[in-house]
TrEMBL record:
Keywords: Glycosyltransferase, Transferase. Signal peptide: none annotated. This is Glycosyltransferase 2-like domain-containing protein. CDD domains: GT_2_like_c. Belongs to the glycosyltransferase 2 family. Residues 6-119 form the Glycosyltransferase 2-like domain. InterPro entries: Glyco_trans_2-like, Nucleotide-diphossugar_trans. The lineage of its organism: Bacteria, Candidatus Collieribacteriota. GO terms for molecular function: glycosyltransferase activity.
Length: 289
């Protein structure tokens, strides 16, 4: 089956990273592959450099910084190919990073393929009062993954549009890719981690420039939002509430996180197709393909 591709790279004041990685992305992404840079209000000359050095690359420029989640959605709305690759601006690609992964989409139920970041792994998940995950140890074969990494993955455009892309309640970022993956599994689709689709994620991107305490707070808030939004099994919901009560008693400062999550609840995008429950998804992921 022939697939067409677009590469989306969100960036914010990441000119040095684009200079480092974009030439290899252009070289190794295949002839005919479109590339879209979503420049999120940069003031470092990114737009000017692209126009001068890589005029063939499409550039969407935000007049203000909208954050990762909104920028990715904006880029995805401009995709006309049946697949798109989402890469952080600090990801280095290898020569054959797409060949194995793209073939996975011959299965019409595959929504996304998450790439093999050499310094990371696929998420081994469980539920213990909330969704928990660690980096799995076995990287010798493909696995069904609970989600596709927002930093390096391929998505089927039609399914992305059907699911509504990233829920912008998670802005500026964190947990939006986990949320989308969970919704995709519940809608009846599959997500695969492919060990042969190798990239190197250096984790030098925009988020490293933010205040770490603020980012940790956002991560905790978005984790709560994910669990409140996506956990629909009644037993798991009760387990989550018990966990929340115990944790807050031992960490009273966590009340600030709860209040922050409650404030964004009205903005959550509800609904969408669902043919699987939480327990079925938990049984389907973490398994070899």
């Amino acid at each position: 089956m022939k697939h067409s591709l677009t590469v989306i790279i969100p960036t914010y004041n990441g000119l040095s990273l684009l200079k480092k990685h974009l030439p290899q992305i252009i070289k190794h992404s295949g002839e005919g592959t479109k590339i879209i840079i979503v420049d999120d209000g940069s003031i470092d000359g990114t737009v000017e450099w692209l126009g001068k050095e890589h005029a063939q690359v499409a550039c969407i420029h935000n007049d203000e910084n909208l954050g990762f989640t909104k920028s990715v959605n904006l880029g995805a709305r401009n995709v006309t190919t049946n697949l798109f690759v989402l890469l952080n601006n600090d990801v280095a690609v290898t020569r054959d990073y797409l060949s194995s992964a793209v073939k996975r989409f011959d299965d019409p139920k595959v929504f996304a393929v998450t790439l093999n970041e050499t310094k990371s792994s696929w998420p081994l998940i469980s539920f213990g009062g909330k969704l928990n995950y660690t980096r799995a140890e076995d990287k010798t074969k493909a696995y069904f993954s609970a989600w596709a990494s927002g930093g390096s993955a391929i998505f089927r455009t039609r399914h992305w549009q059907e699911l509504g892309g990233f829920d912008e309640v998670y802005s500026p970022g964190y947990w939006e890719d986990i949320d989308l993956g969970w919704r995709a599994w519940k809608a009846g689709y599959k997500i695969i981690w492919d060990p042969r689709a190798k990239v190197v994620h250096e984790h030098e991107s925009t988020f490293n420039r933010y205040d770490r305490n603020h980012l940790n707070f956002i991560k905790q808030r978005n984790e709560l939002v994910f669990n409140w939004k996506n956990t629909t099994d009644e037993n798991l919901r009760r387990e989550h509430l018990r966990y929340l009560a115990r944790y807050t008693l031992n960490h009273p400062g966590y009340l600030k996180v709860i209040l922050s999550a409650l404030m964004v609840l009205p903005k959550i995008r509800r609904g969408g197709p669902s043919v699987r429950g939480d327990l079925e998804v938990l049984q389907l992921v973490n398994r070899p393909v």
